[in-house]
Amino acid sequence: MRNVGLYWFGNDLRVHDNVALLKAAAEVDYLLCVYCLDPQWLSPNQYGLAMMSANRWRFLKASLLDLDKQLHKLGQHLVVCYQSPVKAITALVGEHGISSLYRSRQTGFYENQLMLALQKQLPSLQLVESDTHSLYSLEQLPFALDKLPDTFSKFRQAVEQVPVEKPLPVPDFLPSSPAASTDWLVDFPDCLKFTPDADQEMVFNGGETAGLKQLTDYFAKGSASRYKELRNELDGWDNSTKFSPWLANGNLSARQICHYLNDFEQKVGANESTYWIFFELLWREYFQWYAHRHGKYLFVFQGIKQQKPLTSFYPERFQKWCLGNTPYPLVNAAMKQLNTTGFMSNRARQIVASCLVNELAVDWRYGAAYFEQQLLDYDVASNWGNWQYLAGVGADPRSNRHFNLDKQTRQYDQEGSFINKWQGQSPNLPLDSVDAADWPLITP
Ligand SMILES: Cc1cc2nc3c(=O)[nH]c(=O)nc-3n(C[C@H](O)[C@H](O)[C@H](O)COP(=O)(O)OP(=O)(O)OC[C@H]3O[C@@H](n4cnc5c(N)ncnc54)[C@H](O)[C@@H]3O)c2cc1C
User: Fold this and answer.
1) pLDDT, tens digit, for every residue of 331-369?
2) Which of 157, 317, 356, 389 lies deepest, with the highest CB count within 10 Å?
3) Comparing C-alpha atoms, which of 111, 40, 130 is closest to residue 380?
4) d(Cα 278, Cα 254) in Å, to the nearest integer?
5) What is the rounded CA–CA span in Å between residue 354 and residue 400?
6) From the alpha carbon of 245, which atom of ligand 1 is closest?
């Protein structure tokens, strides 16, 4: 009997260093390669926001087109369904007599809920999951997941010496598809119109080909030797690696980056800066396993702590923050950069997050949801984990990370060039249109 498999692509849009794809190639006679664009991504979620901006869609679309191209080289093609994954996969399993489903292990709680729903719907379907999104596999971790260290420092000390395995090659071939190639992407969201931005430097092109180019370009330029001095700059292409959008979509693997980094250290020399790139990849790694470990608690107001923060939801303040219309020029500039390019430096992310939570007293989850919509590098674990950390409800031994906005402006934008470039000057209006003094007096 012929053995038909389905490969369900998610945040692993590549053919190199993809253990799940290699496994599928070795085990089945026919393989259907599928990606599901969930229409839900475009409807408002509980924060009143669609999950995907035009910038994100542009990057994802380019990644899917490039993946299809890579698959064609291996005699395959991508089937894209514009439907909820459970519905789409259930139909495909019936139509093609699929017996096993392969995919990368997901960190997100909701992504895993989909897998459980599929399992319930199709109990005889064999589900095979492998780690492609992290540096280490679950089996390589030197502790059980429920014993994940409660701080990053302890995690780093535990894993730092675990060797990172070499990235895997592209499969020599893929079993052929049981389905004909169709013209896809025609009816997915025309409502998302991307307008090219003014800042050509910050245009990221999605896909494995562009990701591998950024990897070789970054190390060829030698910027890695100065990474630690430059990484806190608010702007500038070479001041940090810019690998994150490709990593988040799985166009690049973290192991591949480590491999290039090791190579650079051997040829050019290792220093504190090259170590620091690895250090940051370990932060990413920590958040991946943190998301696995804490499941739905990644999204709750009090995070993994016992006490709720003293913040709330103020629609006007939140809207002003999103649009970059707050009384804080540095915050405005960073938010306008995000809205235009889909990217913001790590320093600026910390500053705007601290402002939302501390100056504006807004529930941190709205900020995380807005980042989810806008960031090209949106990654469920890194985003919600970092927001929890900044809001004092996550893996931070300190309970408060309040950034002094004047001090940050003096330190990182002394000349005001970042604020000028992104037109962050304040609108000179009060934060709330209803002044606190106009509220009716409550008399006992
Ligand atoms: C509030 C907030 C939200 C964030 N949301 C995301 C997100 O959705 N997706 C995302 O990839 N990163 C997120 N980050 C982390 C970090 O800001 C970005 O990874 C980084 O700015 C990406 O730029 P880069 O690739 O040039 O990073 P580099 O400075 O060159 O770092 C190299 C790589 O290390 C990893 N990394 C660096 N810093 C962190 C960090 N603090 N946490 C996790 N990984 C890190 C990234 O994969 C990055 O590509 C967030 C940070 C904050 C403060």
Assistant:
1) 999 999 999 999 999 999 999 999 999 999 999 999 999
2) 356
3) 111
4) 10
5) 9
6) 11
What integer pLDDT is reported at residue 439 of this predicted model?
Answer: 46
Span 315-428 CATH architecture: Orthogonal Bundle (1.10)
- Alpha helices in 191-328, H assignment, sequence order: 208-221, 227-230, 244-248, 254-267, 272-294, 315-323
Determine the Cα–Cα distance for residues 382 and 248; give it in Å rounded to an integer: 9
Q: Does residue 326 contact residue 360 with C-beta atoms inside 8 Å?
A: yes
Neighbours of 172 (CB within 10 A): 8
The two three-digit tokens of residue 116, written as one number: 């459980």
Tell me whether strands 100-104 and 126-130 are parallel, antiparallel or unpaired: parallel
pTM to 2 decimal places: 0.95
Answer whether residue 187 shows pLDDT above 60: no
Q: Which two tokens stand for residue 64?
A: 């899917």
CATH 3.10.50.30 is right for the domain spanning 4-132: no
Tokens of 139: 């089996």
CB 131 within 8 A of CB 137: yes
Q: Kindly tell me the sign of the dihedral angle through the C-alpha atoms of 166, 172, 176, 180.
A: positive
Residue from 382, 383, 387, 412 whose mutation best tests the ligand 1 pocket (most atoms within 8 A of CB): 382
- For 374, residues 6+ apart whose C-beta sits below 8 A from its C-beta are 53, 55, 56, 338, 339, 342
* Best CA proximity match to 36, nearest among 9, 68, 73, 72: 9
Place of tokens 């910027």: 223
Q: Ligand 1 within 6 A of 240 CB?
A: yes
Provide the percentage of residues in the chain whose pLDDT is more than 90: 83
CA-closest residue to ligand 1 atom 37: 280
If pLDDT is split at 50, 70 and 90, which confidence band does 42 have?
confident
Record the tokens describing residue 169, joined without a space. Answer: 């090659």
Per the structure block, which two tokens stand in for 313? 């939801």
Q: Give me ligand 1 centre to Cα 241, in Å.
A: 10
Residue to mutate (ligand 1; options 11, 221, 264, 284; most atoms within 8 A of CB): 284
Measured CA to CA, the distance from residue 160 to residue 145 in angstroms comes to 17
> 133-166+207-296, what's its fold?
1.25.40
Token pair for 437: 């003094």
Q: What is the per-residue pLDDT across 372-403, written as a single tens digit (0 to 9) for each?
A: 999 999 999 999 999 999 999 998 877 778 99
Q: Whose CA is nearest to atom 4 of ligand 1?
A: 383
Per-state percent for the chain, helix, strand, coil, to nearest 5: 50, 5, 45
